[in-house]
Each structure stands twice: as C-alpha cells, then as structure tokens.
Amino acid sequence: MTLSSTRLIVGPFNRVEGDLEVTLDVQDGRVAEARVNAPLYRGFEQILLGRPPSDALVIAPRICGICSVSQSVASARALAGLGPAAMPENGTLATNLILACENAADHLTHFMLFFAPDLARSCYGGRPWFAAARRRFAAGDGECARALLPARARFLHLMGLLAGKWPHSLALQPGGVTKAVDPGEKIRLLSILAEFREALETHLFADSLEAIAALDGLPALDAWADAAPPEAGDFRLFLHIARDLDFTGLGAGPGRFISSGSFGLFAPGVWAQGASTPFDPAQVSEDHAHSWMEGAILAPAVGKTIPAPDKPEGYSWCKAPRLDGQVAEVGALARQVVDGHPLARALNAARPGGSVHDRVVARLLELARLIPAMESWIRAIRPAEPFCAPPSPLGEGAAVGLVEAARGTLGHWLGLHNGRIAQYQIVAPTTWNFSPRDAQGNPGALEIALAGAPVLPGETTPVAVQHVVRSFDPCMVCTVH
Amino acid sequence: MVAPSPPPDTYNVLWLQAASCGGCTMAALAADDTGLLRSMARFGIRLLWHPSLSEESGAEALAVLEDCATGKLRLDCLCVEGSVLLGPNGSGRFQMLSGSGAPMKDWIARLAPKARHVVAVGSCAAFGGMPAAGHNPTDARGLQYSGWDPGGALGKAFRAGSGLPVVNIAGCAPHPGWMIETLAALALGDVSAEHLDALGRPRAYADHLAHHGCGRNEFYEFKASAARPSDRGCLMENLGCRATQAPGDCNIRRWNGYGSCTDGGYACINCTSPAFETPSGPFQETAKVAGIPVGLPVDMPKAWFVALAALSKSATPQRVRTNAHADHVIVPPARKPLKSP
C-alpha cells in the first residue's frame, strides 16, 4: 500500500451504538479528508406523523435503546409546551433522577465498554502501560468492565424503582412521573446510590467523587494523575496512556460548543472563542445538501424528512444541523465548558477545539459531579406529596422539547394539527457531531476532528481514527432515527 | 485475518444489529446483575462478534462475518436484533452493512442458512416492531413474520440447521432473563418445537401473562381504576393496559431489580405481540365500545367479564376505591382493635 493518497472505507464500526461508515482520504500517513456516513434509516419522524400526540411518549423512546429516557424527556417537554402543566417538585426530582441515572450509566458504559477496549489492542503491545491496559480494558474480559458492569446493572435498579424498567419506560409524562416514591423506596434509592458511589470510588477513580469534581485546572489534573501509581484507578490509567499517546493532540473539533443546560445544575449556552452566548433553538437549521434527503435548508419547526436514496450529492442519511449556519459540537465536554467548570474551561483554554483526551476527561468529570447531585435530589423527595400534575388539554401549534442526553443536546420539534401530530423533527446529539458537509461544503464536527489523524502503514481501520470517533460517544441510532 | 477456531464445546453466537435501537443489547447488559458476557459464559456461550461488545472493528469484523458465511467458522447461533429493512424498492439500501457495500438484509440471508439456530432478539427482529409502524416507511420485516403474517425476510418455510424455525424472543425490549435463558437452553440442546408457541416465542415466558403477579391486583379484582397518570388503581379500564392479554412473565420476575411497566405506573402496551406498534387508538387510552374495553382479558367470555366487573365494582371497599385515585396509600387496611389490658 502506498502512503500517499489512498482512500479507506472503514466499517462496520462497532461500539458506536449503531451503524457508522467513515470514508478517509489519506495523504502522507494522515487523514486529509473524512466523510461520515450514517448508513441506517428507520423513519421515526415519518412514523410519528398522524399519530395521537401522547403516542410520542411510546414511539420516541424507541428511537434509541441507550438514550431512551432522554428521548422520553424531550418528547414529554415538547408535549408540555402545548399543554402546560405545573410539574410538582417531586416530579421534577424523579425526572432528574431517571435522566441522570441514564446519563451516568451511559458515561460509564462508554468508558469501559466502548472507548477503553481500544487501548488494549495488540498494536500497543510495545508500550510500557500495555500489560495494565490489557488487564483492565480488554474487550470481553477486562477487569474494569468485570467490576463495573455489575455495578452499572445494580445502579439501574434506580430505573426499576422510578421508571418501571430501562430501556423504554413510559413513566416520564408532561406533568411529572407515573410512579410515586414511598418512604421505604426513598431509602432504597439512597442505598442504590451509595453502592454505585462506592464502586466508582474504588475502581474508576480510586478517590472520592468530590476530589475529582474539585480538580480545577491542568496543574491539578496532572498532580492528581501523578499522585499515585498509574494503575490506581482506571481514570488515572487513562490519563497516563493519554499522555503517552498524545491524546491532547488528537481530534480537535470545530471549537463551538452547545448545551441546552441540564437539571438546573449545568448552565445552558453556546461557547465559542472564549465567550459565552445564550443558546436559542430558533437558530437551529438542518441542511440536506449531502444527505439522502429531499429539500434544502429548513428549521426543524418546518423541517421535512423525505428520503431521496438516489441523490448523487448525498453520502449519509444524516442531515447537517447548524447553529446560525455554523458547525457545533455537543456532549459532556460542551456541557462542562459551557457550564464553566474550572477544569473544563482550562482544557478549553489550552485547546479550543477539544481533543480525545478532553472529551473523555469531561465525561468522567461529569460523572463525578452527577452522583452527589443525585444523592441530594433523593433526599429532597417528599413522599405523600404529588409526583404528577393532571394532564392538561393540548393546544394546537408548535413546541420544542430540549434535553441533554449523555452525548449532548437533543431537541424534539413538535407540531399539532386537529389533535394529531402534524410535524415531528428530531435533532439528536450525534446528528450534530457526525453530520455530513453542508451546502457551503463545511464539514461536520467529526469530519473536522478526523482531519490530521495518523494512519499507520498497513492499517485498514486506523486505531487513531477509532479513538477520535469514539471520543464523541456517538449514538448512531439516534443520529438518523 | 481469520478468527481463532473456537473450542468444540462452546456455543458460538454471532450477533448482528439490523434496524435496531440497540435496546435489546442494552437490556441484556444488565442480565443477572452481572452482564451479558459473563451470564452467557456460564453456559459455554461465546460471542464470535457483537457490535457493541467486541474489539474487532472494520476489516477484522467483516472477516468474522465472512468466515461464518463461508462455513470456516462454526455458527451455532445467529442472533439478529432489529427489523430487516427491505426498502427502498426491495433494495435494502435503508441499511447497508458499513464497509461491506452490501445491504444488511443480504448478509442475514447469507448467514441464516449457515446457523444451527436463528434467534430474533426483540419484537423488531421477530415481527417488524416499531419501524414497521404506520405505513412502514422502510418496508421493515421480522425475520419470519411481518406483523401477524408468516413470511418475513427469511420466508415462511425457513428452518435453521437444527430444523427449528426462527426463535422469537419478542419484547420491546425483551427482559434480559428471556434472552439469557433462551440462549442457554438452546446451547444446552433443551429447545424443541414444543417449547415454542405458535409465533415462535419461547413458552418459558410466553405461557404467562404480564398480568400475572401485577402489584395492582387488588385494584383489578375490584375494577378500582386509575383515571390519570400516577394513580395507584388498575390501568386496564382507562389507561390502555393490555397486561391481561400480553404474553410475558414481566410481573413475576421484575425488571432492573424492582420494576415492571405496571409497577412503574403505566400501561402494558403488549410489546411481546405482533403489531403492538400500531394500536387502534392512543397507546395510553383504553379503546372501548359502549363503555366496555375492546381488549378483554384472554380466555374470558365478554358476558362474564361484564357481569363480574359490575359485581366487583359494587363490592369495592372504600379503602380500595380511595387509594385507586391517589399516588400513595390514603386509607390503610383495617386492623383489629388492640385488646384493652
């Protein structure tokens, strides 16, 4: 294989929650251009049309098995926009807990099952940390997943108590939740959180969650990484490997970050060039120039989803969302940077576009921040007070429901006419991150982040490309839906 | 690149995600509170490749699939999660298997005849599921059914190497126990045709109804019905619950440690049955004719249901009636008065 000017078509990409194909134009051992294809189309936006509005609560979660709660919440919020119900405090607390449980479980799942196994690949056999990485992170039998998969399963008992089951619950309604919490269940919830905290503090962090959340800059992160042997905690092992593999120099994205805010805990906004501005969903549009979709550039409130499989310029089923015409990145790094966490802001100051390192660090930082917040929400639950407001009649018109899924901002744009769903457009986190080029030819966030990634001689599925792709925590099934 | 040959005593599973949401795998990850891989390893089950759990990506993954298709790797079981998309216009282009240039439907058609067992994981792979809702924009099918109609992507006559039809672990998502126990029973050689119901579902769970063990049983007995979300009463009369018709043991074994749909306060939507995705009315409202629910409990004559419902409503204790319309216990059960000393 010659190293100058080759085209690689990479797939099937696993550990990306769905279907992904990446076409790489490689020049002199580096990715020159990447094209990202989401090769599965299921037509949820078409299926929702004409249905009674409350059916969205059944259909929308089934877009995605890993972020189904996020889809439920977006859908419930869109419905609430057309029939405002004063959600009781308990309803807000329970909704936050269910959503945070999914977000936190996803962050952990992503790290131990989807991202870290690539660090145990035989291509790293010569690195000093390889034996440790193999033991902790190997796909299938790594100790990290062996310890933390059971912890994750028992953490999801929170879903059993509050949401009936996971995935695909109907507990999340526009006015609150269908399941009240009794005094005994409140204690059980605290026990579930305590057990999960212990597992994270033992295996993932080898430190208290509060110590991780208190890391306030790059010197503090470095000092923490060096304060114990590399194998003291999987996060520390990652930091050591990331230094050796220069993960800070890999995968810089567009440098414009969106968060719709979450839980009242993480502030909303848009962060670009060192400054924050408000996030206005009315500035979102979807560009179809390189999607196998009819139409041009439309705001989701009037958007259409009409497949055009033979469109010659198309190379993905994914549309290209843009904020005021600009490419943006969403996810835990975006949320933490927008929120202004000192460590995230320091990472951003050092590398405005982010990196593989920064995305993983922000995700685990957020995990450490979420669990204590969840503990406080459980303590605030007041059994015997209401959990759900009575349903209110839905008006005609349009509304948007926004939520932060683990992997970023999710929006449902809903329109009702004659009591039926007349418009339903979904813009999912990975739609933002893995979008194709737009009419101006501007690449999507991952396409930007892949440019420059090294491709070693003989690699057909370059490992650096895999690190960059998975650093976004993609959810391909949400991407096109 | 050739995957190492598995030891002869393992049961080799290749798991593909067709048009799926990935939720069946996500549910399975919580199996037995230990995780899918360890739960399966106890029965000698080995995953040749799984899209969420394996190391192999790209060319390495395609090599595993190719080796299964050519018979170089013994394929004991092909698990398919998600519907098979035939559209647009029969081309299958709504889902191309990345990196292979071929539609997923063709890969499934190539691999299924090589497998000793073929398992549809979830209602999408079994019957079409949610992607087949409404006018079915992608021409989504189950492996051996399209809704209630035999046929599906593999055809009515398809039989796996063992002679069994496709084993349909229906559910959206299926309970993790259904997946582990079905695969384990297949690996142990314990599954023959009589262990499957008429729609290919394992009778181990499909012989039960979701109603069995429902925590709202006293409210059901007295037809003390919930009127709005978060009420404790029975969900059948008003809120669309189909648990008295739905195959499944979900209220006997519980989900995620403690839960079930009805315990979570919302209706069973009969997700283990074909065409559940397209009900006649809203999911969360009970369809009625002249005040009588259209979907009566299975095996129950309508006249008896009406008579018994009227009788039990007239006998409903005040406690049950009151609590049915609250989200917590307002009136506790009566206690015998304490004996005076």
UniProtKB/TrEMBL annotation, chain A:
Mg(2+) binds at E45, I426, H481. Keywords: Iron, Magnesium, Metal-binding, Nickel, Oxidoreductase. Its cofactor is Ni(2+); Fe cation. It holds the Pfam family NiFeSe_Hases. The keyword Oxidoreductase applies. GO terms for cellular component: cell envelope. Ni(2+) binds at C64, C67, C475. The keyword Oxidoreductase applies. It is found in: Cell envelope. One of its GO terms (molecular function) is nickel cation binding. Coiled coil: none annotated. Transmembrane segments: none annotated. It comes from the Bacteria. Fe cation binds at C67, C478. InterPro entries: Ni-dep_hyd_lsu, Ni-dep_hyd_lsu_Ni_BS, NiFe-Hase_large, NiFe/NiFeSe_hydrgnase_LSU. Belongs to the [NiFe]/[NiFeSe] hydrogenase large subunit family. This is Uptake hydrogenase. It comes from Paramagnetospirillum magneticum (strain ATCC 700264 / AMB-1).
TrEMBL record, chain B:
Residues 208-283 form the Cytochrome-c3 hydrogenase C-terminal domain. [3Fe-4S] cluster binds at C250, C268, C271. One of its GO terms (molecular function) is metal ion binding. It is found in: Cell envelope. GO terms for cellular component: [Ni-Fe] hydrogenase complex; cell envelope; ferredoxin hydrogenase complex; membrane. The keyword Oxidoreductase applies. Keywords: 3Fe-4S, 4Fe-4S, Cell membrane, Iron, Iron-sulfur, Membrane, Metal-binding, Oxidoreductase, Signal. It catalyses: H2 + A = AH2. Residues 21-186 form the NADH:ubiquinone oxidoreductase-like 20kDa subunit domain. The keyword Translocase does not apply. Transmembrane segments: none annotated. Coiled coil: none annotated. [4Fe-4S] cluster 2 binds at H211, C214, C234, C241. Its EC number is 1.12.99.6. [4Fe-4S] cluster 1 binds at C21, C24, C124, C172. GO terms for biological process: anaerobic respiration. Its cofactor is [4Fe-4S] cluster; [3Fe-4S] cluster. Belongs to the [NiFe]/[NiFeSe] hydrogenase small subunit family. Heterodimer of a large and a small subunit. This is hydrogenase (acceptor).
